[in-house]
């Protein structure tokens, strides 16, 4: 297989960066270990995180904890948001009634709900699920709504003329036609879920990746900060890839449904 | 049979909109008064409005609401402008130079999935909790859309324009400022709007965690003091400023589009 020029340049860049990192930290000591970790420090931190655990549980435990909260918040948002978006796209009265609530609440960034969530539900998991839901729900609703509104009128008219019952009309005409837009919304929802979770855990928590970052910051432990950030990045990328997989499946199904 | 695509008459749509808003406020007020929820945790809309007016003049957590908002907005402007001044030129140059594109893209992709807020520990470690720490986080939130939209804008510039400029012997930096920048402008401004939204949201997150002034800091202090009304005032203020920023950028966008004849 011939590698493209792009791959070569990309790989070279990352290698040069890694070399610079090594030289600036352990090699020449230009950057103090208290500010940015040397490769060795990161390795040691990773070994500790996966082995003995930090601060009191292994990284895998923290990852599973964060993953669980994101999964619950995201799943609830999708399960409620997509049907509501379908309803709003298809029923004008529902649209006119519900839209203003979104208009009032949408300018408030999800992260601004964190103090209120803590006041209401405390520092435990419930508050995190609440803010993840508040972050992930609007994109799911709004994109589904927009997707349904973008369905070409002839498709809708044809289905109506054939007397398709309402439920089948929504499930077999509107939802498949709006599927690409719905997934765009779900990607935004997923991203928002991770951002919000990390923020909520940083503000106050006793487990999870944000907690690891928080304790590492207080312990002035840059190696562990980097390990925590890498875990956040890998999980974000991994879950997005998983959603992409689901999207390809759903699009195949949607094509089957409309044909 | 549902009449699918005809829009509702404007009057009815406005009426339903007002009904929706009123129903929301009414539900909120009703729930607050019903005694089902502890009043301490759910004050009514009127109380929040009153508290808003009080906080404009009375200091809380080291400053009045206006003072906190001023320091938040200053931080936001710092991080947002920095993101724009670094991201837009870099994006344009990446659209122009394949080599730069190939160099920056893998770095960008490696960092893309790290939530901006995850930079908080390093931000605190490197720059402290004054201006610098939160600024880095706003930058982390606002930078990607600036870069991506400038890059996309530049990539979709008609190649013939660039070739014509090159054939006429236009130097590289003038190709960027005089050919690519104007053509990419609509995409750049659209990117700025996304970036302002993400930057404002990152600022709030940053201030909740690493700051000693600002509206986010005020909310955390209010949460500690179990003053739900003050927390809600903070949320309302954040929402209002967010809307104002977006409206400002929309105006800029409309002007630019009109100027370029794409209104």
Automatic annotation (TrEMBL), chain A:
Domain ABC transmembrane type-1: 63-247
Transmembrane segments annotated in the record for this chain: 69-90, 102-123, 129-148, 194-213, 225-246
Keywords: Cell membrane, Membrane, Transmembrane, Transmembrane helix, Transport
Gene3D superfamilies: MetI-like (1.10.3720.10)
Keyword Transport on entry: yes
Pfam families for the chain: BPD_transp_1
Compartments in which it is found: Cell membrane
GO biological process: transmembrane transport
Principal location listed in the UniProt entry: membrane
Family designation: Belongs to the binding-protein-dependent transport system permease family.
Protein name in the entry: Bicarbonate transport system permease protein CmpB
Organism: Methylobacterium dankookense
Gene (UniProt): cmpB_2
From TrEMBL, chain B:
Protein keywords: Cell membrane, Membrane, Transmembrane, Transmembrane helix, Transport
Membrane topology: Multi-pass membrane protein
Parts forming coiled coils: none
Matching CDD domains: TM_PBP2 (cd06261)
PANTHER family with a match to the protein in the record: ABC TRANSPORTER PERMEASE PROTEIN MJ0413-RELATED (PTHR30151:SF0), ALKANE SULFONATE ABC TRANSPORTER-RELATED, MEMBRANE SUBUNIT (PTHR30151)
Family statement drawn from the similarity comment of this UniProt entry: Belongs to the binding-protein-dependent transport system permease family.
Protein name as it appears in the record: Bicarbonate transport system permease protein CmpB
